[in-house]
Structure formats: structure tokens, C-alpha cells
Amino acid sequence: MAEKKTTTKETAAKKTTAAKKTTCKKACATKAVAVEYNAENVGFKAGDVYQALATAEKALTVKEIAKAAKISEEETLLGMGWLFKEGKITTAEGKVALI
Fold it and tell me: N or C: at which end does the chain have fewer Cβ atoms within 10 angstroms?
């Protein structure tokens, strides 16, 4: 029997398919981890936001607060909500500052 020779197009197609499969595996592996939010956890995030603003001694954007507090932007917003409710922060020109 004669062996079927593969063309360069078939070889390239196989490599592309293999690359797509590994890319999908990498993307699928980075799914978000579910975090349980309760009053205690959100209160701790509020403390992180407060400390970041107090340390900076100036108004910061949400991204700057998240970076300074080493928490996600979502957690920063949760903490900000807590602090807004307590009347401890204010916003001006897209930045957040302590009152």
C-alpha cells in the first residue's frame, strides 16, 4: 500500500487547529473565581478604600484606589458604596476624596 503524503496546507491546518485548542484551554482556565460577599467582607473592602485614600491624602480615581489598596475595581466600588452610605467620601471631577 502506498502512504498518503500530506501537503503543506494540511500540515498548516493541523497546526492551526492544535494552536486554537491550546488557546481555548488557556482562556477557559482563567475564569473568574466566585467570591462570597457579605457585610463583613464588604466592610473590610471599605476599610481598604478608606486607608488608601487616607494614605494618599488627595482625591483618587477608582483605578488608583484599587491599585493602592491592592484590590479589584469591583471590590473598590463595593467599599466605596459602604463609605458613601456612611457619608465618609465624596466625588468631584471623577475622583473620590475623604470628607
Answer: N
Contact between 44 and 77 (Cβ < 8 Å): no
Residue-wise pLDDT tens digits, 21-48: 555 555 555 556 676 889 999 999 999 9
pTM of the model: 0.66
Neighbour-count burial for 30-65, b at 16+ CB within 10 Å, e otherwise = eeeeeeeeeeeeeeebbebbbebbeeeeebbebebb
Three cell numbers written together for 97: 476624596
Best CA proximity match to 82, nearest among 55, 53, 56, 57: 53
Distance CA 22, CA 57 (A): 46
Q: What DSSP state is assigned to residue 37?
A: -
